[in-house]
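Predict structure. Chain length: 75.
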Amino acid sequence: MEVFTPHEVAEHTGSKYRGILVAAKFARYLNEFPRDAVERWERTEGVKKLTTLALMKLTSGELTFRELRRRRTET
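Prediction complete.
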């Protein structure tokens, strides 16, 4: 099991909380792919869980993101 420190996550996102949110959203995105693609990633990347893969990509700098402002809804 690989361990990611809050400092490693915050290096690329500015905040450990934002880093966890970005990694969680990316893991959910990966989960939408067909099972054979996920199994291929498990073999090539050497990980068993998509959250670990997402954190690996985030801490290595391979995962880029941009923050969008929320739109206000008129009531």
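Summary: The chain has one domain: 6-59.
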